[in-house]
Amino acid sequence: AQSVTQLDSHVSVSEGTPVLLRCNYSSSYSPSLFWYVQHPNKGLQLLLKYTSAATLVKGINGFEAEFKKSETSFHLTKPSAHMSDAAEYFCVVRAWEAGNNRKLIWGLGTSLAVNP
Amino acid sequence: DTGVSQDPRHKITKRGQNVTFRCDPISEHNRLYWYRQTLGQGPEFLTYFQNEAQLEKSRLLSDRFSAERPKGSFSTLEIQRTEQGDSAMYLCASSSVGGQGTDTQYFGPGTRLTVL
Asked: Contact B41/A108, CB-based, under 8 Å?
């Protein structure tokens, strides 16, 4: 069975310091993995996706994530946090099921706070 | 490509009333999804269309909920006899099947429903 675990429900960083949001997944098949961001009272925006190409994936707004199969991880990082990065972040795995490859499994989200 | 749009953005209704939401997907996207999101939670899958065919409905989708996509373009989600527990953000996403079946979903801004 496929699952995704976001290891921190809340992360707080200072502006200008690095961001690390942790995500572990479980999948019987080669997964597709995504990070989405949601700002308060807004819809979900795709940050980046891994689809079995390069293991280091670059996304928008300076974010990147590295797929590590041996660790079953897909952590999201950014070298320097900006105030506008404060939001909820969701790690998502695409579940491959027989005859059905569209189901998304969502993590519970990590709330990122950026302090001035 | 203007992205996924949803209308209205906010809806306040009294318990027992019917409401209808509209979603316009990214043009030429053949898949359309509806999700519900409550405060502090990730999105919950409700239903999904490929072109005009509704291929799956979640058990969360009670008989009071109905969705249509009559011409394979925009979709509507209707909730009959609304209850206070229906208060949530209703999200629409669209996708097209890409290489390796990645089927990346792009989300609209959501419709926030408040049932009084």
From this structure: yes
Give A94's contacts in chain B (Cβ within 8 Å).
102-103
Q: Is A83 helix (H, G, I), strand (E, B) or coil?
A: helix
Burial degree of A23 (CB within 10 A; 0-12, 13-18, 19+): buried
**Residue listed under structure tokens 């519970």:** A108
pLDDT in tens, B11-62: 999 999 999 999 999 988 999 999 999 988 889 999 999 999 998 888 878 8
Of B40, B99, B108, nearest to A43 by CB-CB distance is B108
At a CB cut-off of 8 Å and minimum separation 6, what does B56 contact? B47, B48
Q: What is the C-alpha to C-alpha distance for residues B41 and A69, in angstroms, rounded to an integer?
A: 27
**Which residues of chain B neighbour A42 with C-beta distances below 8 Å?**
109-110
Instruction: Give the single-character DSSP code of B27.
Output: T
Cis peptide before A116 (omega within 30 of 0): no
Which has the closest alpha carbon to B82: B113, B112, B44, B60?
Answer: B113
